[in-house]
């Protein structure tokens, strides 16, 4: 659902840029409360994983494909504020390095793919957890539904933005019907990927999953025939999988997905591209400013072998994203630590 240059007029793009900048400022502040020494490395990895999985377009209908948006996945794993930053880092890397998503439309893409998906999915996720049993399985179920809803919500948001600032005279009703219809199908794929990923992390390190916090039930012991709450442990229980092992496993998985599996992804246009072509939205589309980038269109320039070119581009993308994301989140964590430290007054 990456919006290219030319789909949305300049004033509307500027307004969405202001909205995106404001949301990023709020998220930078909020993420300092969500991130700690355990979750900061995971946040950088989540950004890289989203980048990798977004390369895996899956078929959803005749001549149409879809890919992960990632807002729900990131919000549940690392928190909503950090999720906005995760997806924004991915969109920035894609736009600047890979000519995917217009640079003048960066505000539109952040608003639609990072902000809307995160807010909607996390609201749905929390609402479901409030009524579901307080079990780990409920986190996976809520993840599935939240991700499913987030994709058509993003389609609705794009339609509204296009209704305000679209550059072609197209029936908004037809655009809305086509966008929502195909993105409901894409949402199923998003839901499956999100639920499987969240479920896998919850199974080995539930303490690292932001959405699973507070669900652990207190251990009860039977004393003299009555159940009483056991004392809270003074030290964390040893995890089955260390943070380092989880991080390395996630990074290797991301590299394999982007560097190898992506070659077998669907070549059909994604939901927005298909609707844009069928409805004439793309009549004013402009060439990407980074079209001459050495990595444009997810291939390495001057590498003739398509499999090698795409694989190298995917590996480079994962590497750059994990470095950029990790740098941002480690800086936020250090800022949090600095704010928490007592001020030396010299007394």
TrEMBL record:
Domain PDGLE: 244-334
Name by which UniProt lists this protein: Energy-coupling factor ABC transporter permease
Predominant location: membrane
Classification via InterPro entries: CbiM/NikMN, PDGLE_dom
Entry superkingdom: Bacteria
Alphabetical UniProt keywords: Cell membrane, Membrane, Transmembrane, Transmembrane helix, Transport
Transmembrane stretches, start-end: 7-28, 40-60, 72-93, 113-132, 144-164, 176-204, 246-265, 311-332
Membrane topology qualifier: Multi-pass membrane protein
Compartment list: Cell membrane
UniProt organism field: Streptomyces musisoli
């Amino acid at each position: 659902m990456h919006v290219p240059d030319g789909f949305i007029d300049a004033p509307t793009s500027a307004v969405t840029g202001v909205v995106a900048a404001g949301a990023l400022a709020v998220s930078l502040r909020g993420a300092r409360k969500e991130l700690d020494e355990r979750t900061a490395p995971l946040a950088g990895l989540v950004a890289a994983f989203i980048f990798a999985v977004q390369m895996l377009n899956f078929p959803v209908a005749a001549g149409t494909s879809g890919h992960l948006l990632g807002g729900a996945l990131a919000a549940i794993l690392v928190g909503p504020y950090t999720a906005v930053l995760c997806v924004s880092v991915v969109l920035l890397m894609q736009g600047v390095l890979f000519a995917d998503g217009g640079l003048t439309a960066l505000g539109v893409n952040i608003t639609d793919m990072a902000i809307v998906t995160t807010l909607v999915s996390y609201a749905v996720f929390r609402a479901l957890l409030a009524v579901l049993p307080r079990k780990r399985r409920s986190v996976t179920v809520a993840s599935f539904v939240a991700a499913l809803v987030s994709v058509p919500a993003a389609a609705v948001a794009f339609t509204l933005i296009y209704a305000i600032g679209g550059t072609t005279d197209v029936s908004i009703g037809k655009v809305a019907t086509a966008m929502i219809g195909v993105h409901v199908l894409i949402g199923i794929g998003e839901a499956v990927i999100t639920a499987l990923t969240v479920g896998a992390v919850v199974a080995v390190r539930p303490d690292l999953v932001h959405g699973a916090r507070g669900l652990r039930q207190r251990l009860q012991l039977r004393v003299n025939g009555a159940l009483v709450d056991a004392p809270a442990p003074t030290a964390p229980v040893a995890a089955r999988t260390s943070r380092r092992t989880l991080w390395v496993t996630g990074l290797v998985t991301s590299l394999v997905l982007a560097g190898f599996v992506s070659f077998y992804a669907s070549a059909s246009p994604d939901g927005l591209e298909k609707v844009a072509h069928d409805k004439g939205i793309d009549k004013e589309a402009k060439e990407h400013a980074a079209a001459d980038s050495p990595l444009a269109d997810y291939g390495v320039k001057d590498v003739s072998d398509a499999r090698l070119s795409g694989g190298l581009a995917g590996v480079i993308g994962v590497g750059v994203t994990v470095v950029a994301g990790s740098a941002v989140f480690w800086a936020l964590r250090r800022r949090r630590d600095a704010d928490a430290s007592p001020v030396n007054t010299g007394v």
